[in-house]
Amino acid sequence: MEARIIRRSVVTIAVGLAMGSAGVAHATNGYFAHGYGTKAKGMGGVGMAISQDSYAPGINPAGIAGMETRIDGSLTYFRPERSVTFHTEMGDMSVDSDSEDFFIPSIGYVQQIDENRSWGIALLGNGGMNTDYPAVENPACGGQGSGIFCTGEAGVNLEQLAIIPTYAQKFADGRVSVGVSPVISYQRFSAKGTEAFGGLSAEQGENLAGDRTDTTWGYGAQIGFQAELAEGARVGGSYRSKIRNGDFDDYSGLFADGGSFDIPSTYGLGMSVDVTPRLTLSADYQRIKYSDVDAISNPASNLMLGQDGLLGARNGAGFGWEDINIFKFGAQFEAGNDWTWRVGYNRGENPIPSSEVQFNILAPAVMKDHFTFGFTKGFGEHHELNFAAMYAPKQSVRGPTADFSGGMPPAQGPDATIEMRQYELEIGYAYRF
Question: pTM of the entire structure?
Answer without folding.
Answer: 0.91
